[in-house]
Amino acid sequence: MKPSPAAEAIEAVMAPLRLAATVPERVRNADRAIAQAAARAASGAVPRELRKVMCEVRDAFGRELDESARRAAVARALVRLAPFRDPGYAALALAQSPRVLAGLGPRRAEQLAKRGLRTVEDLLYRLPAGYDDRRTLAKVEALAVGARVTFAARVHDCGFGGWRGRGGRGGRMFETLVGDETGAISLKWFRGGEAIERTVRKGALLLVTGEVKRYRFDREIQHPEIEVLAEPGGDASASAEALPRRIVPRYATPEGVHPRALRRAVAQAVADYADLVAGRLPEALVAKRKLPSPAEALRALHAPEADADPEALASASTPAHERLILEELYLLELGLALRRDEKRRAPGIAMRADGPRLRTALRELPFALTSAQRRAWREIGADLAQEHPMSRLLEGDVGSGKTVIAYLAAVAVAESGHQTALMAPTELLAEQHYRTLRQLVGSGGLRVELFTASAAPGHAERIRTELAAGEIDVAVGTHALLQDTVAFRSRGLVVVDEQHRFGVRQRAALRGAGEDGAQPHTLVMTATPIPRTLAMTLHGDLDLTVLDELPPGRLPARTLLVRAGEGREVSRLLRETAARGEQVYVVYPLIDESEKSDLRAASESAQRIAAAFPDLRVDLLHGRLDTAARQAAMARFEAGETQVLVSTTVVEVGVDVANATLMIVENAERFGLAQLHQLRGRVGRGDKPGQCVLVARGTGEGSEARLAAMLATPDGFAIAEADLRIRGPGEFLGTRQHGRLPDLRIADLVRDRNWLAVAREAARTAVARNPGLHRDPALRAAVQARWGEALELSEVG
Ligand code: ADP
Ligand code: MG
């Protein structure tokens, strides 16, 4: 970590000052050194108050001084500089309201604050959304429709006029006809015309920037940015030629803020504050990657040199971008590394992970573990045996066999005299886990109970009592298990399935689930494959185990796309499947929260199928059925008493019937890609091949791309990558990131994932070398300030 340019400049003044303070009689030539260093400091991108003090110091030492005058000047300079040498100065200065900037009044500051630009620092990190290349000016004739252009033109005519749109709409607008020797074009303002009227005069020369649109047979620009280059009659040639040819940053301007006002505010922030920004990256990394300092980077991005590469700027791939993005990601990764470290040092319960009960459980499994499962169990078993709590993410595609791993962990915990809580985001999923565990447990072994909110009161009461007495080994349920009224005798392991599907508040409760003293081990399971680099950051405080192998003999489901009107094809597949004695799911999307309309669609479909196939038994499953009715329907399907299960999205995760081989997804265009993949994973789980029919009844946003991805690959990780491309990072991560990490300011976890890996590596090394970062309090404080709350880092650590 390197001090900021401002701090270095201040130190450069301090060194000769200190000398002058200790031996004032002997240091005549220190005066010049002080004056020069102060002059240099005053010329930096520093706040006005610091510049003022530096000018004072420069003037005080810039003249002949006798010994007593020097003593006085030294004493005064030390006093004046002291506040700027405080380690917290830069942070405080950067956290000030933009009001401190020259030319920015309280009213405008208020406007900016309303749009989230509350501090000088916010302005510094408001990176341009794009750049206008004003180094070459276009001729009006050559302005292409659709292009964003900058050109100089004379005002031929201007004034208010009316406009009329379709459907009788209309209103007032300000219109200006401008042109050069090659042609003319119209500029239009549908709002704010009054202000334009005051600045634009017939005959004036304007610099115009905006996007060219087609209007009827002509071209026009709506709401361009304009700058008056010469008033009417002014020396036009001089101004157009003398125009600074620049690459001008363009900011995403919030409603109610003028683009030029924002640009000026940012430029002022850069001019007065950029040098206060310190770099946090390890110097070795900076040198290796040849990165500019943050201050240089801010200047390069907000005020590009005339010879900069606009393409590289636009694609966020310049060294300046790299520096700022790495800085941001490094702090984040430091926070994650610290949290991971803290958790690892907390007291936990060491479990016996290789006792006789566990060995029996392993021996009695109805199948041989895949090698991925064996590796996963080795890692998790080793974690459980530690005296510190495990925090591990088990990531594996649908059907990769995660539940059995959780089961083994629960056996080890029970054998060691403790209990396991297994939580799923919905009651249905909890019920499914409960059934799966019961099957695995077989005759002897664990005592597993289901605990959900909708359980009968008497039943719930009994389970509470038995949990408290330690008679139950594994409690399966939803977040209802986290209620204060549910006391375990000794909760040794918390397994959380599909954590991202829990609500934000519930997740907070999951995190807070640890009791005083020894923390339980935590195993988080997810079937939503996130590209590895992302997983490492989103769950950066967790260790990662990936089940990258499906049980043997599992054939990827054949996937077909059927369009509306091709219902015969669907009927044929249904009939063939039933004729082989195999079973069928038909799934309807969740259309609205109330589930009313999709319920209607699903029940009509159930009736239709029952009528068309009188020899098949059809059941209907939906979220409004109570637990008992749902369990009964699931049990009938599992036992093969029903052949067709029509449902709303409730079967999405967790249903496990090996004999079900056909999945029909209705209105497939409405489902997200991850969801479609999950649904497809429900068939072909036994030794019979599965088929998945996607019935597309319309098109939705991105739906064709999603359906194409489903047809293209059976691989969950490839699906996740495709999902990421189709939806873009914001939405892809939306739900998962929400409530976990506050927004990153400039980095983009997907676009910048290569840099993410670099930042993580550097952060882990730093924390390994300097546990808790205690030997670098400034860095620790920076991490704490930025991420402490979000990551729940302890203040002292
Ligand atoms: P998921 O990772 O989707 O939660 P499950 O744990 O539900 O997967 O397992 C899917 C199915 O595969 C279950 O029926 C389970 O019994 C079975 N299974 C798990 N591991 C194996 C294995 N190694 N060999 C054969 N079948 C397995
Ligand atoms: Mg599962």
Keywords:
single chain; alpha/beta; seven-stranded parallel sheet; 29 helices; 21 strands; binds adenosine-5'-diphosphate
Structural class of the secondary elements?
alpha/beta
Strand order of the largest sheet: 11-12-10-13-14-9-15
The poorly predicted ranges are 735-742
The set of bound ligands, ions and cofactors reads:
adenosine-5'-diphosphate, magnesium ion
Distance between the termini: 21 Å
Shape: flat
Beta-strand percentage? 15-25%
Radius of gyration: 34 Å
State the share of residues found in helices, binned by percent: 40-55%
Mean model confidence by pLDDT: 85
Describe the structure.
The strands form four sheets. The chain has a seven-stranded parallel sheet with strand order 11-12-10-13-14-9-15, with helices on both faces. Strands 16-21-20-17-19-18 form a six-stranded parallel sheet, sandwiched between helices. α3 (48-61) packs antiparallel against α4 and α15 (356-363) packs antiparallel against α17. The chain starts with a helix and ends in a 6-residue tail after the last helix. β13, α20 (504-511) and β14 form a beta-alpha-beta unit. 44% of the residues lie in helices and 17% in strands. The chain is an alpha/beta fold. Residues 735-742 have low confidence and may be disordered. The protein is built from 29 helices and 21 strands. Magnesium ion binds at residues 402-403, 654.
